[in-house]
Here is the input.
Amino acid sequence: MAAILAIAPQIADRLATEAAKAQTEANTARVAAKSSARDGKPLLARAAFARAERLQGRASTLSALAEQARAGGAA
Here is the structure.
C-alpha cells in the first residue's frame, strides 16, 4: 500500500497530462467540425463533433482520476 501511495503523485501527473492532450484534441475536432459544416459537408461535421464529444468525455474522466490519485497520495 505504501508503494502505491508513493507513486500516486506521478500517476496523477500522467493522468493530468493525458487529460490535457484529450482536451486539445477535442478542441481541434470541434474546429474541424465547424470547418466541415461551413464547407457543406454534414457527414464529416457530425463525425468530427462526435469525436470531440468522446474526447471531451475522456478528458473529464482522466481529470477526475487525476484528482483521485492526488487525493490518495495526500492521504
Summary: The chain has one domain: 11-73. The helical segments are 2-38, 42-74. The mean pLDDT is 90.
